[in-house]
């Protein structure tokens, strides 16, 4: 995106890409379908150490409706709304169409693409920058770093751009894996592997509470699903949080009504709202016999069960790290770049965008929206600066 819009200004533009075809994260996103964009912006759900107004300004530079128009009009990729999730996918359900469309668009604007080339260093020079690559040095007037973070290193993200930005004197927020599955080393829920449902999670550290709501999947190693990924970053930042799960929309008051109803099997009442295997597990965790009926459910058992249903303490031991993280948290401090042009305030002529910057959003296309918006802004500014 950065290269295409730099070239659209008339600037001679070279895109250096370490893989043989580019856009590897596009290809694996959305289960191979590519969740191109969210249908509704959610800047308030982004995580950054910077003041919120800086992030909002960068996202507003290319609003969602304009981004969608770009993909449909300029790239010729019709998008379809998945109503339940609010996500926008290519109507073809092929991530490759998105990647190939972006590469074709960049080339149509005059971008020269150099695949299978690794950047090893960047050195400011009297006339701009000398970029050291596996195929020799390249001299340029302006440089955009859009190398991503450290997540899913198999796609080509090894953190080289972050290391370069750090060496060039930028303020760096320590990086960490985000949007990644959680682990439970004691395997206390291994028997629930494969059980899925929509869950509300709350992670508390002192007075600070982070919430998420969405799909939850028990795995052999721990927990996954959008609701889990959206809250996983709290396990990497500061003190160890306590994570509690509300297993369905039913509140403590709702469950209290259900569990004080005339004689009925408690397990059957639970199974109306949550998967039966999970219901059995929660009854055991609350110390309620599996054959208990409401007529002989003690007050202590009822309260313990309601607590397990609405505020269950989720045991966790860590997360899957960068290998499975969808994004990298931390990076170059937003205050180190101009919020309109994304030009570095430390190194004139250098532009930084995308996952390199200290910001990430929730599951659902928000991180692509951030990539598209910041890539375009950096490319336009860099291209116009030398035309």
CATH topology of the largest domain: FAD/NAD(P)-binding domain
Please state the structural category: alpha+beta
End-to-end CA span: 18 Å
Rg, nearest Å: 24 Å
Reading off the top of the CATH hierarchy, the class of the largest domain is best stated as Alpha Beta
* Overall tally of structural domains: 2
- Low-pLDDT regions: none
The 3D shape can be described as elongated
Number of strands: 19
Q: Considering the protein shown, what is the CATH homologous superfamily of the largest domain?
A: FAD/NAD(P)-binding domain
**Biggest sheet record:** 7 strands, antiparallel
Continuous helix count: 12
**Multimeric state:** single chain
Q: Could you characterize the architecture of this molecule?
A:
This protein has 387 residues and is α+β, with helices and mostly antiparallel strands. The protein folds into 2 domains: 226 residues, FAD/NAD(P)-binding domain, CATH 3.50.50.60; 138 residues, no CATH class. Helices cover 29% and strands 23% of the residues. The chain contains 12 helices and 19 strands. The strands form 6 sheets. It has a 7-stranded antiparallel sheet with strand order 16-15-12-13-14-11-17. A 3-stranded antiparallel sheet has the order 2-4-3. A 3-stranded antiparallel sheet has the order 6-7-8, with no helix packed on it. β13 and β14 form a beta hairpin. α1 runs parallel beside α5 and α8 packs antiparallel against α11. The longest helix has 20 residues.
């Amino acid at each position: 995106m950065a290269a295409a819009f730099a070239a659209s200004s008339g600037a001679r533009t070279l895109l250096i890409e370490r893989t043989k075809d580019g856009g590897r994260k596009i290809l694996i996103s959305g289960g191979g379908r590519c969740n191109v964009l969210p249908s509704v912006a959610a800047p308030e759900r982004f995580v950054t150490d910077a003041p919120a107004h800086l992030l909002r300004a960068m996202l507003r530079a290319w609003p969602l409706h304009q981004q969608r128009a770009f993909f449909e009009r300029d790239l010729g990729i019709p998008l379809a709304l998945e109503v339940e999730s609010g996500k926008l996918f290519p109507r073809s359900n092929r991530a490759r169409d998105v990647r190939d469309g972006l590469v074709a668009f960049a080339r149509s604007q005059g971008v020269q693409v150099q695949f299978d080339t690794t950047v090893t260093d960047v050195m400011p020079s009297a006339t701009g920058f000398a970029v050291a690559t596996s195929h020799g040095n390249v001299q340029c007037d302006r440089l955009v770093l859009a190398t991503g973070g450290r997540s899913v290193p198999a796609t080509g993200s090894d953190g080289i751009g972050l290391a370069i930005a750090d060496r060039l004197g930028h303020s760096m927020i320590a990086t960490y894996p985000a949007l990644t599955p959680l682990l439970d080393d004691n395997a206390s829920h291994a028997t629930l592997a494969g059980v899925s449902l929509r869950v509300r999670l709350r992670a508390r550290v002192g007075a600070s509470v982070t919430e998420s709501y969405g799909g939850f999947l028990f795995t052999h190693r721990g927990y996954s699903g959008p609701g889990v990924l959206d809250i996983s970053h709290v396990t990497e930042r500061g003190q160890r949080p306590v994570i509690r799960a509300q297993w369905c929309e039913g509140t403590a008051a709702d469950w209290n009504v259900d569990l004080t109803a005339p004689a009925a099997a408690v397990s059957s009442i639970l199974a109306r709202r949550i998967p039966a295997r999970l219901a059995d597990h929660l009854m055991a965790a609350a110390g309620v016999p599996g054959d208990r009926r409401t007529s002989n459910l003690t007050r202590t058992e009822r309260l313990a069960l309601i607590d397990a249903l609405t505020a269950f303490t989720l045991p966790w031991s860590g997360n899957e790290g960068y290998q499975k993280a969808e994004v990298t948290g931390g990076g170059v401090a937003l205050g180190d770049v101009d919020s309109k042009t994304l030009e570095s305030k430390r190194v004139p002529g250098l532009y930084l965008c995308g996952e390199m910057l200290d910001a990430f959003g929730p599951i659902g296309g928000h991180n692509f929206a951030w990539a598209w918006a910041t890539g375009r802004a950096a490319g336009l500014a860099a291209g116009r600066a030398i035309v």
